[in-house]
Amino acid sequence: MIEEIEIKTKSGTLSASIFGATNPNDTVLIIASATGVKQEFYKKFAQFIAINGITVITFDYYGIGRSLKKPIKELKNNAADWGRIDLESVLKYTLKNFSASKKVLLGHSIGGQLIGLSETSTTMLL
Fold first, then answer.
1. Which partner from 8, 12, 26, 61 sits 20 to 30 angstroms from 84, CA to CA?
2. What pTM was computed for the model?
3. How far is CA 53 from the centre of its chain?
4. Helices and strands in the chain: count of H runs, count of E runs
């Protein structure tokens, strides 16, 4: 089952998807995507992981994919904001809504670099 959600940030809202685990094992995987890669790119992988018991959260950075809410020329954010604001907001959402679950963060390309910009990533148990 895929649940489409919106996560509020300082910049606006992010489009995210939660792939509910079949026979959940109390683990949630957050996928921080590569530059310009829409969350749909990870759909088959997320479905495979969910079928094997792990809930998965994918999301589009502000200004990418379904998180592009206005003309791209009007955006004032940058790649560092994707870590400081967007990934931070997704991690806080995960901590609030999956508090009892083990959290695992997977960064693809820049997504791996952005982890260090999220304040919450340095304090949460992965």
1. 26
2. 0.93
3. 18
4. 4, 5
70: which residues sit within 8 A by CB, 6+ positions away? Answer: none
Instruction: List the Cα angle 63/69/71 in 5-degree steps.
Output: 75
How far apart are the C-alpha atoms of 8 and 12, rounded to whole Å?
A: 6
Which of 12, 11, 54, 56 lies closest to 31 in space, CA to CA? 56
Q: What is the pLDDT of residues 45-63, one digit of tens each?
A: 999 999 999 999 999 999 9
Helices (H), ranges, the chain: 43-51, 79-81, 88-97, 110-114
Alpha-carbon distance of 27 to 102, in angstroms, equals 5
How far apart (Å, rounded) are the C-alpha atoms in residues 120 and 105? 12
Q: Which residues pair with residue 3 across a beta bridge?
A: 18
